[in-house]
């Protein structure tokens, strides 16, 4: 075995391990130990490397390859990146970087290109000479992608020649060969995900474009092009978008706040480097009641924050508190808290760290202790200077924080009042709740239904042991436009908080959740969609862990029931209904469900509640920025963005005869 921990060509393979396994159940000896060679382990347990074999893991394949090009951009060797989705759902990622090395490796009788593509933990990112900073520090990226593809092709433009190699399920078809000459440098990787591995290989353009936009904002001067050959205009040109942001994080904040009313029109932005750690920050306060803080380390979105976020928050609270005290903007008995200072704040912090220490393979939280002090010091110094130079904006920001603190006190008083009434205690349940008899949260479900009529059918059709029903009367408050003190005065939200048992806001405790599944079951019409969106807005703003931890679901009620003789099928679209009527011919009857209340208990159980036959959609957030943008459009103050959204998606809406 080589001293770098990889397997060389002389390492013996254990191919007959299964023949050595004992026949007796419970045997456990040397013969039971299986050794998976090369990339076999990746194909056997793909979830260990890319998270899942669903939609998230599929798109992660593209991100892993793109990250290599981004690392070239970070090293100032690349300013153009193009991602192309082909008609067969294969993808090509090409850049104008230096190109992957192709010469023979000094310790292995193989091309460096082949080693990079087919050997785990092989790459140039384990030392800082080639890449000072990098996101792909674990060295498993592109080799994992190679293993999980039906085929992959690498084309490297380097030193005047074009080098090529093809791989099938991670195994090289032939040695690296020269197929032509070139006057440029760069790497082109093409692959098709393996349908044997992934549940679906249909790439989503919006998902990829969101990530490409994010990367363009984080890397000034880098142009990223996304092309989709599956969708073409009348002239035959493929759908495409290009992203380039000379303003970096400032442009990012402007884009995120484009539908909001800013308090400080000039965005607070600064960057500095200390102890080889580069820090970039951009911030703007708006009239919104919610705040959005997003963090990145070496272009990786650290969803769970980390030491860089802690440093930013600490400095921010200290700066605003000191300014309020020095300028007599706050009552003596009012202390500003972190949440007060961040109400309505859109903030981005991006750090470049030579040796980042991430907590876990998912890289969602930074652990470097030294980063906290560096970020805190830079933010404190730069923000203090900015506030002195912009006193009017600083006054407005601090006054906003003071108002938030006063509202927080009012919300606390409302919570205390609600608690005295038993409204926020898990032991007190709302009268309208039809609870289940099972007290094990892991086996319990809560259906949130629209109105008493649907609630009545659901109560009759449910499994009383495991399924609870909470009917809501009317539409809950739009929490995107309200503070917590007003939210807690809404009767329907009070009942919802009581039923879940988790409390809300700062006091939210996921451990107290009384039901493993929280299922939103509303009518399949415009009003039902509005109620569903209002509920999701509440969960995302005040109980985000419910969504992040996979507890929120959407029931999928049918629109029709098509019958002919003994044949019957529930139908979820107008097109499917029309096809069935044509296929089944005469004497076919169609029942239109105008709402859940029109379904009898048996029908509701069969289509929406029976775990064996129902269809549920899991609510998940792959990109928090994209989610926040959507809630701003749908539920924010500005009407025009909402109107544009409706017009853009009007062709996706079904108009039914009722």
What's the topology here?
Elements: H1 17-20, H2 40-44, H3 47-50, H4 55-74, E1 80-85, E2 91-95, H5 112-118, H6 141-147, E3 149-158, E4 161-168, E5 171-172, E6 177-181, E7 186-193, H7 205-218, E8 223-232, E9 238-243, H8 249-256, E10 268-274, E11 277-285, E12 292-297, E13 300-301, H9 307-326, H10 338-342, E14 345-352, H11 369-389, H12 391-420, E15 445-450, H13 451-461, E16 467-472, H14 484-487, H15 491-500, E17 517-521, H16 526-542, H17 544-548, E18 552-555, E19 560-564, E20 567-571, H18 574-584, E21 589-592, H19 601-609, E22 616-618, H20 624-635, H21 639-648
Helix pairs in contact: 4-6, 4-7, 9-11, 9-12, 11-12, 13-19
Q: How would you summarize this macromolecular structure in one to three sentences?
A:
The protein has 658 residues and is of the alpha+beta class. The protein folds into four domains: 44-243, Histidine kinase-like ATPase, C-terminal domain (Heat Shock Protein 90), CATH 3.30.565.10; 249-415, Ribosomal Protein S5, domain 2 (2-Layer Sandwich), CATH 3.30.230.10; 427-557 and 599-652, Rossmann fold; 560-592.
Would you give an account of this structure?
With 658 residues, this protein is α+β, with helices and mostly antiparallel strands. The protein folds into 4 domains: 44-243, 2-Layer Sandwich (Heat Shock Protein 90), CATH 3.30.565; 249-415, Ribosomal Protein S5, domain 2, CATH 3.30.230.10; 427-557 and 599-652, 3-Layer(aba) Sandwich (Rossmann fold), CATH 3.40.50.670; 560-592. Helix content is 36%, strand content 20%. α11 (369-389) packs across α12 (391-420). The model is unreliable at 1-23, 28-36 and 124-128 (pLDDT under 50).
